[in-house]
Design a protein that fits this description.
Elements: E1 16-17, E2 20-21, H1 22-44, H2 49-74, H3 78-86
Antiparallel strand pairs: 1-2
Helix pairs in contact: 1-2
Length: 105
């Protein structure tokens, strides 16, 4: 039975754009916005146009290289998992002899 409506079969899959997965797209977009604002600020402060352009090209290529390297190394959720793992303590110390828990009903 065919229907006239298209079924979205991409439910649960991560967003992919030119090889970048979900969160890395946002990191790249934020970095590009910061570079644009940096260019505008430098230009309004009176820096020569060639220096502004060269600086933005160099920083932009570093940004692209860093984001694609993170994407390749950690994958879709790997970097978030690594950052979350840092917050888990190695050992838990207890200084109290008896622990008391209050039950709330």
């Amino acid at each position: 039975m065919n229907s006239i409506y298209n079924i979205n079969k991409g439910i649960g899959k991560p967003i992919v754009f030119r090889g970048l997965y979900g969160q890395y797209i946002y990191y790249l977009a934020i970095g590009m916005t910061v570079l644009l604002l940096l260019f505008v600020c430098l230009y309004l402060l009176g820096a020569p146009l060639t220096i502004c352009t060269l600086l933005i090209i160099i920083l932009g290529s570093i940004l692209f290289t860093l984001v694609y390297t993170l994407n390749k190394r950690y994958g879709v959720h790997g970097w978030m998992k690594q950052r979350a793992a840092r917050g888990i303590p190695q050992t838990i110390f207890c200084d109290q002899l008896f622990l008391s828990y209050e039950k709330s009903f």
